[in-house]
């Protein structure tokens, strides 16, 4: 039997159940083709090295499997390529060294070496970890939308202030029709004020908004 490994990245805008369902789709495909699953690794949400489809992060999965049926490999790759839920994938034919490396890594024989303590100068050069801010303070952004934005890499008021209306609507389109009625046209302006901690100015602006949309004098 030949050993293969497939790694794929699932769109983080999908719900948790949809992400798990996507991964199971390909696990079931392999099992139904009499492949033997050696190991599956749910690596979770990770930052991308570069943006893909306007996403800065993705949910990583890796499956190592054995098979005698070589035709499953191109069919699996074609299914991954056609799946809009999959942002990227990589399929590898593992030689004996690759198989041994994976086994040693799972058994803790590779990696996890103790890192030397960094000096104060080195610590100064380390970029601080970005912590998500409460985007629900933006008029029109509720908890579910905040979660969608975070999944797409929009974590802070500064991130939101730089996002265009088209980019945000693209996130909504990926998430489903239930978000089609939301209007993010004022979010960048609100987020700019929040980033600058101009809370009084933000409150004044939000008094003129309803659901994140400017209210006309007739509506008032």
How would the blueprint of this fold be written?
Elements (H helix, E strand, L loop, with lengths): L1 E9 L5 H17 L3 E17 L2 E13 L4 H11 L3 E9 L1 H11 L13 H5 L18 H9 L5 H6 L2 H11 L11 H9 L3 H9 L1 E2 L2 E2 L6
Antiparallel strand pairs: 1-3, 1-4, 2-3, 5-6
Structure notes:
The protein is an alpha+beta fold. The protein contains nine helices and six strands. The strands form two sheets. It has a four-stranded antiparallel beta sheet with strand order 2-3-1-4. The protein has a two-stranded antiparallel sheet with strand order 5-6. The longest helix has 17 residues, at 16-32.
Structure in a nutshell:
With 220 residues, the chain is α+β, with helices and mostly antiparallel strands.
Fraction of residues in β-strands? 15-25%
Largest sheet: 4 strands, antiparallel
The count of strands amounts to: 6
Number of domains: 2
Mean pLDDT: 87
Oligomer state of the chains in this structure: single chain
Task: Label the structural class.
Answer: alpha+beta
CATH architecture label name of the largest domain = 2-Layer Sandwich
Number of helices: 9
First CA to last CA: what distance?
72 Å
Strand-and-helix sequence, N→C? EHEEHEHHHHHHHEE
CATH class bucket of the largest domain: Alpha Beta
Shape, per Cα inertia axes: flat
The order of strands across the largest sheet is 2-3-1-4
Radius of gyration: 23 Å
- Examine the coordinates and then state which fold CATH places here, giving the name of the CATH topology of the largest domain: Alpha-Beta Plaits
Helix content: 40-55%
């Amino acid at each position: 039997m030949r050993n293969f490994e497939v790694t794929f990245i699932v769109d983080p805008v999908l719900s948790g159940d949809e992400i798990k369902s996507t991964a199971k789709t390909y696990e079931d495909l392999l099992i139904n083709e009499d492949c033997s699953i050696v190991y599956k690794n749910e690596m979770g949400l990770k930052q991308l090295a570069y943006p893909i489809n306007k996403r800065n992060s993705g949910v990583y999965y890796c499956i190592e499997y054995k098979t005698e049926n070589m035709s499953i490999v191109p069919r699996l790759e074609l299914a991954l390529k056609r799946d809009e839920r999959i942002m990227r994938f990589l399929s590898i034919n593992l030689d004996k060294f690759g198989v041994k490396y994976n086994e040693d890594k799972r058994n803790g024989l590779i990696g996890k070496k103790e890192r030397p303590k960094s000096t104060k100068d080195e610590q100064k050069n380390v970029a601080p970890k970005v912590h998500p801010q409460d985007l629900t303070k933006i008029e029109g952004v509720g908890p579910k939308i905040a979660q969608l934005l975070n999944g797409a890499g929009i974590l802070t008021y500064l991130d939101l202030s730089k996002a265009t209306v088209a980019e945000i609507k693209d996130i909504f389109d990926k998430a489903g029709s239930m978000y089609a009625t939301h209007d993010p046209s004022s979010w960048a302006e609100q987020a700019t004020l929040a980033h600058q901690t101009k809370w009084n100015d933000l409150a004044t602006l939000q008094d003129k908004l309803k659901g994140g949309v400017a209210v006309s004098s007739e509506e008032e």
